[in-house]
Fold each of these.
Amino acid sequence: MTDAAHEGHRAGIIPAGHWLTNEGDRDGARIIYTHEQIQQRVREMADEITRYYPAGEELLVLGLLKGSFIFLADLVRAINRPLHVDFIVASSYGSGTTSSGNVRLLYDPMAPIADRHVLLVEDIVDSGSTVNRLAEALGERQPKSLELCALLHKHVAADLTLEPRWVGFDAPREFLVGYGLDHAEDFRHLSFVAGL
Ligand code: IMP
Ligand code: MG
């Protein structure tokens, strides 16, 4: 972080953590989950997922973009079952840090859903609006099973219609970035999760 940026941060002009990079200066960053912790936990979750589904049954792993892209890439490589990958794009947040609760489906998976084991992969469950909206939309298409795997769960959602069967970490109720999670599109590429 440059001196000017540091002063800007101190003065509240530059958001905390704006200088965060994978290597180098992490002064002032509050790393919540390290790369190593995440990798270990993702392997554990993949083992649990592998055991949950009968051998030989094929999964359709549906990643919710953009936040799940790194998590999904690590997760599917450790799942020992035949699977296909597709994505869903939903949008509820603008550039702010609070959910609008108004979730739009921007891209619908091309893959057929009916009679398949669908595993939805989320980066983080916050208000639950996104999960509820997707569970409704996907449930209507008669999957053989529908489960949710979330890297992070803030446990603030009051009425989740689909509880995640697998959760990486019970996350603190603050705004988190890295490992796919963004703040106004910054920080997705970080290999760790930090608090802003
Ligand atoms: P929900 O609909 O309120 O549960 O929000 C879910 C979506 O909001 C996630 O898929 C994220 O993209 C985003 N989100 C929620 N909390 C955070 C956070 O702490 N950091 C970054 N993105 C978040
Ligand atoms: Mg986001």
Amino acid sequence: MSSIICRAVILAAGQGKRMKSSRPKVLHDVLGRPMISRVVDALTSLPNAKIEHLHIIVGHARDQLQEYLDKNVSTALTCHTQDPQLGTGHAVMQAAAGLNEANFKGNLIVTVGDAPLISSATLQALVEKHVNEKSVVTVLSTDVENPTGYGRIVRDERRKVKGIVEDKDATPSQKQISEINTGIFCLSWPQVEDGLKSLKADNQQKEYYLTDLVEWAVKAGLPVSALKAYDCRSVMGINSRPELAKASRLLSDMTIERLSIEDGVTVVDPASSWIDPDVKVGPDSTILPNTHILAGARIGSGCVIGPNTVLKGKVEIGNNVHVNQSQISDSKIGDNCKVGPFAHLRDGNIVSENCKIGNFVELKNSTIGIKSNCAHLSYIGDTTIGTRTNVGAGTITANYDHLTKSKAKTIIGDDVAIGSNSVLVAPVTIANDVVVAAGSVIVENVPASSLAIARGKQVNKDGWVEQKKTTSLKK
Ligand code: UD1
Ligand code: CA
């Protein structure tokens, strides 16, 4: 099927009362990222359909949400204010004028903003079913063990969808139905506009329910379909903080299942590991307990990551790398490196192959050449290090000028040995094959193949102790 052009409406105007928060519900994090960004990502990465425009319904704490969207979403979008918030059907109506002004005629995906586990594959299947069956309303449903709180899909004796009844309006027998409405639909615009206009708020919550559109279409003789999501976890809706916690857990669990079943990755303790679905890990890598791998990480094969490790942002790790009890953000680590325990690689580092970054070493914005080591207790910032260089324990690059608030670079060549407890005051360049004596404070460039010593000269005073003892005893 050639790429289908769609628009999408995301419902995000509600307060999310049950969250008891001043922040809009959809800005709460699920596995380190706001729910709404996960919904937007799923919509904008459909494998075989293109969302040409997003319509986001905002209301409660609208400014916060709009600011987030402006900063973080690159797809063309319009925010439509819904004030007051009179229900999900009323919410979709707020986008009607915008859709008609753009002269949009086509498939409109409508999704609640609080179901962030949705995948682009499921949304793609929904759109394809809608198109193939020439439906006007297609609802994404799923079977759950505990349907409490969700709208139920009501089917007739021929199992055809008849309508959706909300939990609060359901009769005791309807409450037994385990097939629920995920809150995600594909609609044909503008055919459904009349239906939205005809919605009534004659229900328990006195709201205009989007779900009533199904009954409207059935009564109007328009084709209605339902697609059942086979993994009910991926369509879970979040209404409270315990559900928020559960959503992060489920998202990680689903990712770990994929990594361990499809990609040949061992996750020793899934319950204490947190892995974003965006993360890629090569075969025969092992993730040890209590490790958090957030969106953006790419890990090669044969690696051991953890325990107690955090990888955050764009982290690229080669093959056969060990990262033990460490934190890495926005950095690249080459093959066969060893990192940690207790290393902190802040943003912008490139560590080449076969390096060791050891305990209590902090790297920031630095490049380390092949086979170089910073094995103990160092701060290396804004520094370039060549190949086969050894940085001794306790070396500090003094890269920050407190008065001018500016930073300067340190350049260290190939085959250099920096003695322990040295301070390299930037800007400074240390050429190839240099030895810096331990305890030096280097403030001037060091030419190739030389020894640099910059410390007080040692003085040994013969017999000083004996002399001191006798003079003190005389007193
Ligand atoms: C909704 C569905 C229910 C479904 C469930 C799936 C309706 C009437 N009910 O119920 O069938 O099983 O989602 O999770 O559609 N919103 C607005 N404006 C409003 C009201 C809500 O933008 O006036 C937004 C909210 O911000 C939220 C989403 O719509 O992102 C869903 O609202 P919520 O109140 O959570 O609906 P549920 O009761 O969960
Ligand atoms: Ca909800």
